[in-house]
Amino acid sequence: MEALKTILYFSIFRHPLKMEEIHKYTTHADISETLKEIDYLIEEKILSKVDEFYVYGSDLDSVTKRLKGNLGVKKAMTIAKKKAHFIAKFPFVKAVGISGSLSKGYFDEDSDIDFFVITEPDRLWITRTFLMLYKKIFLLNSRKYFCINYFISTQNLEIEEKNRFTATEIKTLIPLQGKSAFEAFYKSNNWIDNYFGERDPLQKDVPDSTKPIVSKGIETILRLKPCSSLDSFFRKITVLKWKTKFKDMPREDFQIALKSTRNISKHHPSYFQKKVILALNEKYREFHKQYNIELPEEHA
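Structure tokens predicted for Nucleotidyltransferase:
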């Protein structure tokens, strides 16, 4: 039930999919296999088709919601490309991509533009601090078009949490800057093939951006020995701030939702990953109860 798992997953977001989209999130070798499964699900009245979209249950309004969300994508992507080009100019940034709802072709008044940033090793927290200061000072801390909540370095490209949520985020990630770094990133995360089959090839027009003289100069200075402990310092003060701010968060949740290692920085205080997986497993249980078809539960 590869197609069914995909449809149930996206139904959490009230995001119905087209046939070609469903197929991309399966391990089926040919789209005819996906079509056969979809035909069976429609015959059993588990799915319904509205225009080009396949809807689980009775949430027919989700099609209208998606169509409205699609309208904002073109403008948001234009902004995202400009922002990504700007972010890539910052010291030690190796690559910039788009994740979140925009990477899935959806953007409405409640959406943010979520950026995924790859940095040089042992300079991640310096990079993060520069970008956060820019957001606070020049954007008045607005995150609508400048939400950067996930950093990794080229030293640690493999995503440690391997589940349907993270696999989907990697699958839908849109690289905008840093082709070489993204090629290495996808090679390090080929485990997602177990969920969705082979990933689409990286677009040829993703550039490896060049740094302006100012950024190169800052990089040169911050590589000097007296600055060697600066990255660790920024990490320590950030983690201290987060531990104070989110003191009621269970330790095991904090370690994943706000992961703060030398080469990884996540800022997901709502722990959305866990919420999605729990919601998906609940859908699996409801589906089993209603249709007597059991689906193995996912892990967060």
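The chain has a mean pLDDT of 94.
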